[in-house]
Amino acid sequence: MFSSIPFHKTISAYNQAINIPLPKFEDFDVRDFSENMVTVRLEMPAFRHGFYQIALLESGGGKVSSGGKIFDLDNFTLFFIQPGQIIQWQVPKNWKGYYVSLSESFYTMALDQFKVLPDFPFFQRYTPAFKLKREEAGKMIEAFQSLKAEYENRDIHTNAIIKSYLATILGFSLRFYERESKDTSVQNALLSLPDRFKKALNTYALEVGAGLVNDHKSVSNFADDLAVSSKHLSETIKKSTGQSPIEHINQVLVEEAQKLLLTTDMSVKAVGYYLGFSSPSYFNRLFKKITNTSPAEFRKA
């Protein structure tokens, strides 16, 4: 369906594509960014891969794009990548930090109620990168360094020890994700309903653009997320913006489609499927309704 965007199913295929050494394990890898910088491709066009990643940028900056959004990375930035996300980057040679790549089959320790990797909230939906506090980053870096040291010195106990360090990294990630989510919730409580809806739309756009949406959200879904009734949300947004919530939601879908049509060579049908449309004809009708042109005509123009 997405043959025009390279898909690196395995960690080995991914490492080859970005020009770094092959992993020591088939379904797990841990890397020091500064070591990668010797050979890694500093510019990567859009691609996808078939495994999970957790990365901490200690310093270096640069730009990473996911789901059509460009993020300027800052020191102590934590970010998560899910299977199938479209990613591209442009980074300097002075990156410092660590990351892990792991397949679902490698995660067998079942941390608390999280029996499989998709159970973790930061892997359930698109999670924008966020900045850690210095002391938080220090704990993560220490865990990554211990994991990396064990990874480089293998014996019969290595697999179990690696998984224990991985559980520590996942545990810290969960703690900092929940802290970030709580801080965001407090900030959202101070916003007006139209501003909260706009922020929710921006998050939804990231999820849609990253290819992580199978069923489109309804006005009722947004109302539930914002803890208001559908009627109140509809009346408030219409009064504030002149458009109904569903018009805003559809606008997000079409804008994400426009980005893919302009930046990839995916077929129109593939773009529709990628964005969660089960019917190519409905995708075409909605696109034309909002833009007064078909997806194919939009691309040619």
UniProtKB/TrEMBL annotation:
Q: Which UniProt keywords apply?
A: DNA-binding, Transcription, Transcription regulation
Pfam families according to UniProt: AraC_binding, HTH_18
- Tell me which InterPro entries the record gives: AraC-bd (IPR003313), Homeodomain-like_sf (IPR009057), HTH-like (IPR037923), HTH_AraC (IPR018060), Tscrpt_reg_AraC-type_HTH (IPR020449)
Record's signal peptide: none
Q: Which SMART domains match?
A: HTH_ARAC (SM00342)
Keyword set includes DNA-binding: yes
* Gene3D superfamilies hit by this protein: Homeodomain-like
Q: Which GO terms describe its molecular function?
A: DNA-binding transcription factor activity; sequence-specific DNA binding
Keyword Transcription set for record: yes
Q: Where is the HTH araC/xylS-type domain?
A: 218-301
Q: Per its UniProt record, what PROSITE patterns does this chain match?
A: HTH_ARAC_FAMILY_2
Among PANTHER family, the record links this protein to: ARAC-FAMILY TRANSCRIPTIONAL REGULATOR, TRANSCRIPTIONAL REGULATORY PROTEIN
The entry's protein name is HTH araC/xylS-type domain-containing protein
In which organism is this protein found? Roseivirga misakiensis
Organism taxonomic ancestry: Bacteria, Pseudomonadati, Bacteroidota, Cytophagia, Cytophagales
